[in-house]
Amino acid sequence: MTRNRGIRMVHHSYDYVLVLMSYVVSVLGSFTALRLMAGIQDIHDTTRRWKRLILASLVVGVGAIWAMHFIGMLALNMPVKVDYAPGLTALSAVVAVIACLIGLSLTSRGDHSRLNLLTAGTYMGIGVAAMHYMGMAAMRMPATTVYNGAITSLSILIAIVASVAALWMAYKRSSVLQSMFGALVMGLAVCGMHYVGMAAARFAVLGTPEVAEAHGIDSLYLGMLVFGVIVVMLLGVLIAGLRNREVFAIDS
Questions:
Q1: How far is Cα 112 from Cα 45, in angstroms, rounded to an integer?
Q2: Beta bridge partners of 3
Q3: 204 in a domain, yes or no?
Q4: Residue 72 within any structural domain of the chain
Q5: pTM confidence score
Q6: 141: nearest Cα among 91, 218, 89, 85
Q7: How many domains does the chain have?
Q8: SS3 letters for the chain?
Q9: Is the pLDDT of residue 118 over 50?
Q10: Distance CA 199, CA 203 (A)
Q11: Is 249 within the bounds of a domain?
Q12: How far apart are the first and last CA of the chain?
């Protein structure tokens, strides 16, 4: 920690095993979502289309975005006790899913013009950014979070650009190999938004209380647990899709 005008600034670092896990889960979630959306243009039944949209929104919102965010948060190492408010953390996941559903539904109508992609991507990106900063607000620790306005704005811009790109890739007919490449790019974009957002944050301890030396939770084990649960869920969707070639448009 350093002292700055009576405020002790808390230095932090990252557990790079968890950072890598956050990227891997984002890539797997992105790939699963891209394959789910690959053949949706050929679905004319409204009920089936909405079921696919909701499933894809859950996959990308929870798997590719929220899980990446939460594991990334757990990767943060600070010399203070950190816990997370469960209600606000869960609500942030709901916000991510709703944001993805809005973006996917707006572009699923067949209008893939630049204006519509930008509009849908803006809604989705703002929702993703809201999820991130709600997750940050869920942190419970003996410190105050102070944000750099310019870097925060940059993180929101990255979220919007990433969302526009994700929606463009979601409705672009692509092969499995192209979806793999797209997922790698989307994973980088999602992680980029998260870690730029984290770079905008500074943590300050006010007053003179002693700073705890241990975390309130075992970050590594909790991160591995979240990673394992989400990966199993995503692999379940992938396996179910592979059994039904229509689901993932395997021939496209």
A1: 20
A2: 8
A3: yes
A4: yes
A5: 0.86
A6: 85
A7: 1
A8: CEEECCEEEECCEECHHHHHHHHHHHHHHHHHHHHHHHCHHHCCCHHHHHHHHHHHHHHHHHHHHHHHHHHHHHCEECCCCCEECHHHHHHHHHHHHHHHHHHHHHHCCCCCCHHHHHHHHHHHHHHHHHHHHHHHHCEECCCEEEECHHHHHHHHHHHHHHHHHHHHHHCCCCCHHHHHHHHHHHHHHHHHHHHHHHHCEEEEECCCCCCCCCCCCCHHHHHHHHHHHHHHHHHHHHHHHHHCCCCCCCCC
A9: yes
A10: 11
A11: no
A12: 54
| Domain hosting residue 11, numbered range | 2-243
Q: Give the separation between CA 29 and CA 235, rounded to whole angstroms.
A: 9
Rounded to an integer, what distance in angstroms lies between the CA atom of residue 193 and that of residue 164?
13
Domain membership flag for residue 90: yes
| Amino acid identity, position 210 | E
Q: Look up residue 203 and give its two tokens.
A: 């943590």
Mind listing the pLDDT tens digit for each residue in 198-236? 999 988 876 554 444 444 457 888 999 999 999 999 999
Task: Give the C-alpha separation, 147 to 150, whole Å.
Answer: 9
